[in-house]
Specification:
- With about 325 residues, the protein is an alpha/beta fold.
- The chain folds into two domains: about 40-140 and about 265-290, 3-Layer(aba) Sandwich (Rossmann fold), CATH 3.40.50; about 140-265 and about 305-320, Response regulator (Rossmann fold).
- It is about 40% helix and about 20% strand.
- The strands form two sheets. It has a six-stranded parallel sheet with strand order 2-1-3-4-5-11, sandwiched between helices.
- The longest helix is centred in the N-terminal third of the chain and has 19 residues, at about 1-20.
- The radius of gyration is 24 Å and the shape is globular.
């Protein structure tokens, strides 16, 4: 019995040694070692078919899957009441990273994260951080300032508007940036912002936009996720200009959408994952502005006169160079 035990230990030891240095005494090569398979889950407040905000995050998850060989999962159109439960489910299943895509996920992550210290949580567009959770926060007030500048220069009526989902600080900051940019281009411009209380009600967004157009607004910027489709539809029908959000939405209405503020969630998520794989990711809040390339403007698609395009591009360069500082204003102003 003792001999059998020693043999078994010897076999186990040889197997372990074979893994570490090989039975022939040579060190195992990286290709012989089994690479870690990361498990990453994404929780979305809307649909991946929204052709904007949620679709962009889904594409980011697919990039993580394809580049890093990660095992991925996602839940879309999750109601607010189910945020915590969804985070817990993925955590219980052993996912290494669970991502909440939106400011509204900040509080649920802060509640759930301490219960699962082995799981890392990313909150996109939040400003929270802790021992095992942090935020990937775009600084799109810079991009919004630039499209506000564009909107004012393109307006014939002297009235431009914004349509936004909710008065979350990260959204208010962008709309206030839009106002500042418009007024920098034309101090006499009239800027109206409407918060519609939804990210997915296309009909409500369209109705609100039609009212703004009837009031004389002829360039309208949206931060409304899937509901933004209604904004663009209204602008197309009434032959005024729209400015898209999150990715290039000109494809939805080629003669209507002047440009869009791009938030490259794919690049943002890929960079965070790369740092994680290298063991370099930290729990500090990660911020991305125009200078990082994560925030940028889409092409003007030939809809913007060259002289105006040049002025807007100069504004972008001035922001990147620090000659223009766009403040963070988290409460709506007149």
């Amino acid at each position: 019995m003792k001999m059998q035990k020693r043999v078994l230990i010897g076999i186990a030891g040889c197997l372990l040694l074979a893994i570490l240095v090989g039975c022939g005494g040579q060190a195992a090569t990286p290709t012989q070692q089994k690479a870690r398979v990361w498990r990453v889950a994404l929780v979305l407040p809307g649909s991946i078919s929204d052709q904007g905000y949620n679709a962009a995050a889904y594409n980011g998850l697919m990039r993580i899957r394809d580049r890093f060989g990660a095992e991925v999962a996602f839940s879309e159109a999750v109601p607010i009441a189910e945020f915590e439960e969804t985070f817990r489910d993925y955590s219980e299943q052993g996912y290494d990273i669970v991502i909440g895509h939106g400011y509204e996920f900040g509080e649920p992550i802060q509640k759930v994260a301490p219960q699962y210290p082995k799981t890392t949580y990313w909150c996109i567009n939040c400003d929270v951080s802790g021992p095992n959770y942090t935020s990937l926060l775009h600084q799109n007030q810079e991009g919004s300032y630039a499209v506000g500048y564009l909107a004012a220069l393109m307006s014939k009526t002297g009235k431009v508007a914004g349509v936004a989902g909710f008065q979350f600080p990260v959204i208010v900051q962008q709309m206030e940036g839009f106002k500042l940019g418009a007024r920098a281009a034309r101090p006499d411009i009239e800027v109206t912002v409407t918060y519609i209380g939804t990210f997915d009600d296309i009909a409500r967004a369209k109705e609100a936009t039609l009212a703004l157009i009837s009031a004389g607004n002829d360039v309208i910027f949206h931060i409304a996720d899937a509901a933004g489709i209604g904004v663009i539809e209204a602008c197309k029908e009434r032959k005024v200009y729209a400015i898209g959000f999150a990715w290039d939405q000109n494809v939805l209405a080629p003669e209507t959408v002047l440009t869009s503020t791009i938030i490259d969630f794919e690049k943002m998520m890929e960079e965070a994952m790369e740092a994680t794989v290298k063991g370099e990711f930290t729990m500090e809040i990660h911020r991305y502005g125009l200078s990082t390339g994560v925030v940028r403007l889409a092409d003007f698609h030939g809809l913007v006169p060259e002289d105006i395009a040049a002025r807007v591009n100069q504004v972008v360069q001035d922001i990147i160079a620090g000659r223009i500082q766009v403040p963070l204003i988290s409460e709506p102003t007149p």
